[in-house]
Every structure is written in C-alpha cells, then in structure tokens.
# Entry
Amino acid sequence: MTNPVIELRRPAPHVAEVWLNRPDVRNAFNEDVIASLSGAFAELNRDAELRVVVLAGHGKAFCAGADLNWMRAMAGYSWEENRADAQKLADMLWTLDQCPVPIVGRVHGDCYAGGMGLAALCDVLVASDNVTFCLSEARLGLLPATIAPYVIRAMGAQAARRYFTTAERFSAAQAHAMGLVHELCTPGTLDARVTDIVATLVTNGPAAVRACKRLVREVAGQPVTDALRAETARRIADIRASDEGREGVASFLNKRQPGWLPPV
# Structure
C-alpha cells in the first residue's frame, strides 16, 4: 500500500515495512503523517500472522521533526486546537508502542524531535554511524512532551535531562553509548544488517517473540515481589505447555527445524 506520506510494504508473509515517504521535506511530520501512521499500525497490530515490522524513511533523512507548514498552522491555533492536535500525535505514538511484534528501526541521516519519538519506540534500533540526533524543541520555546515517555525509557532519565534542556545535537556513537541505538553500521551495510535482524526474529517462535515483548513491557521497573515471581513462573509454565513451546523443545532435542519454519 502506498499513500502520499507513507509506504507500506509486505516483502514476506510475516514481515511488514513502513516507510516514511516525504523525502522532499526529510520525512517531516504533519497531520497526514500522524493519521497515516496511526491507521497503518492499527491495521498491522491486528495481523495475527505478523512477526516483525521495519520502520524506515525514504530519502536523505529518517525524520527531521515537524513540518514547517504544519508548525505555521499551529502558531495560529487556540489552546483547545493545540490540545486536540497534540492528542492525535500522542495517540499515534501509543498505537506504535502497542505493536505486539518487534519494530526494527532503520535510521539514517537526521533524526530530530518527533523522529526521535519514532526511533525510541523501536524494539531494535539500527543506525548509520553518521546519523545526527537532536531533541530540538527547547530551541523553539517548546518541549518534547508527547514523545517524552518513550524517549526517556529508551535513553534514560539522566541523558534526557541534558538533551531535552540543551537541545544539542548528538552523534550516533553517543546515542549508542546511552542505549538509544542498539547497533551502528556504515551507511553501506545498514540494509543488510536490518535484513539479518529481521531474519533472526522470523526464525524464533512467533508466539514466544510476542510474549517476550509483552514480558518486558509489563515487568520492567516492577519490584520483585512474591506476586511478580508467581506471575513470571505462571508465564513460563503457560508457554512450556503450549503447542509452540512443546514443538520448539521437541525440535531442538530431535535436531530438526521447528514447525513454524519451512522445511529445509
């Protein structure tokens, strides 16, 4: 599926690719991008056969933040109009965050402002080693409010305290050091590395991968109480007793491909 602002590809039955498709403005956000991403991921989130989504951008940049024309329009909004507009962005980010399968981010060029929100939502973030990141909102007298829950989770509160307030640009190497980026590659090897990670994810048990993503979301930051220990024990028992769990262990012990993979 292609529309003026995003491109949705299905290169394999279990794989989807969502490409930001406004290369002339470095894939900057506007209301159409927000609506299109919301719609695309709402549909993907319901796909029971899906195992991985790649999030990427056409052109010279992953995403350069807000579109200038959109910003000009917002400058004349009332408080109520600004609130409604911001809620759409917040809801779009939440829809992506609720994706039940891993999102692999392919980041190149610039990744600014709202683009950093998208990057922070990715479960695996692969970036070219020449990418420049920036949380530029404070420079404009604004703040990165709607993306904050995801960016702080990804880069950590201490790094966020600096880069939210200074609006400094920082390098891909710095982003990697703080944990925002999982892997750096040269621009020429970016696509190959993303392809390798996608292939790895598709090889794993599809229900297990979904359960692993849900486990991190629901366990991260929780105190290790009696209730949490009981809950984690219940989850491993559930998946061990599931058809996929039994098949995975049997295939390992019998040195054969599991049933969720095509025969060799």
